[in-house]
């Protein structure tokens, strides 16, 4: 079969890895909140309104449950 369709079932993918500088990678955003992975392996949630932070925490608990979040304003 040459035209295989990806099996993502129409899921919205939130992993958008962007290298912001040499020490951190932007994983994804939730409104104004940014989920960032630092070079030392820590994951930070930066900025955002309370609703943005709630959405991020729910998403992390489902898809990155091994991550220990740090919250930075």
Provide a descriptive summary of the structure in words.
It is a single chain. The protein is α+β, with helices and mostly antiparallel strands and 73 residues long. The chain has a domain at 25-72: Alpha-Beta Plaits (2-Layer Sandwich), CATH 3.30.70. It has one helix and five strands, in the order E-E-E-E-H-E. The protein has one helix at residues 50-63, and strands at residues 18-21, 24-30, 33-38, 43-46, 69-72. Strands 1-2-3-4-5 form a five-stranded mixed β-sheet. The longest helix is centred in the last third of the chain and has 14 residues, at 50-63. Residues 1-11 have low confidence and may be disordered.
Topology, element by element:
Elements: E1 18-21, E2 24-30, E3 33-38, E4 43-46, H1 50-63, E5 69-72
Parallel strand pairs: 4-5
Antiparallel strand pairs: 1-2, 2-3, 3-4
The N- and C-terminal alpha carbons lie at a distance of: 50 Å
As a percent range, the share of helical residues equals 10-25%
In terms of structural class, how would the helical and strand content be classed? alpha+beta
The largest sheet is: 5 strands, mixed
The CATH architecture term of the domain at 25-72 is: 2-Layer Sandwich
- Uncertain residue segments: 1-11
Residue-averaged pLDDT = 79
């Amino acid at each position: 079969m040459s035209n295989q369709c990806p099996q993502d079932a129409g899921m919205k993918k939130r992993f958008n890895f962007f290298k912001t500088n040499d020490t951190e990678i932007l994983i994804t955003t939730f409104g104004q909140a940014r989920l960032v992975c630092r070079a030392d392996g820590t994951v930070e949630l930066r900025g955002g309104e309370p609703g943005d932070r709630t959405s991020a925490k729910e998403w992390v608990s489902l898809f990155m449950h091994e991550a220990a979040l740090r919250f930075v304003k």
